[in-house]
């Protein structure tokens, strides 16, 4: 199965927010793509990426961390507003 993770949307949001530190949160099935995602973001923004290696059981499982300008969370399913 392939996923369209839409990294360009993440880049656009990082630029809009002028984020310098970004925390990336992925479910276990997408964690193998973490470095690829972080590299893409860092190569296309001025942000430094950090990868959350703890749990990610859905949109409500937000890490209790501070000192990041932006948290970007990916999942397996489309999130509808």
Mind explaining what this structure looks like?
The termini are far apart. This protein has a three-stranded parallel β-sheet with strand order 2-1-3, covered by helices on one side. The protein is α/β, with parallel strands linked by helices and 81 residues long. It has helices spanning 7-17, 34-44; strands spanning 21-25, 48-52, 70-73. It is globular and about 30 Å long. Helix 2 (34-44) links the parallel strand 1 (21-25) and strand 2 (48-52). The chain has two helices and three strands; from the N terminus they run αβαββ. It has a domain at 15-62. Helix 1 crosses helix 2. Helices cover 27% and strands 17% of the residues.
Short description:
It contains two helices and three strands. It is an alpha/beta fold and 81 residues long. The chain has a domain at 15-62.
Q: What are the key terms here?
A:
81 residues; alpha/beta; 3-stranded parallel sheet; 3 strands
Q: What is the CA-atom radius of gyration, in angstroms?
A: 12 Å
How would you sum up the major sheet?
3 strands, parallel
Roughly what percent helix? 25-40%
Based on CA inertia axes, which overall geometry fits? Answer: globular
Any chance you could write out the topology, listing elements then pairs?
Blueprint: H1 7-17, E1 21-25, H2 34-44, E2 48-52, E3 70-73
Parallel strand pairs: 1-2, 1-3
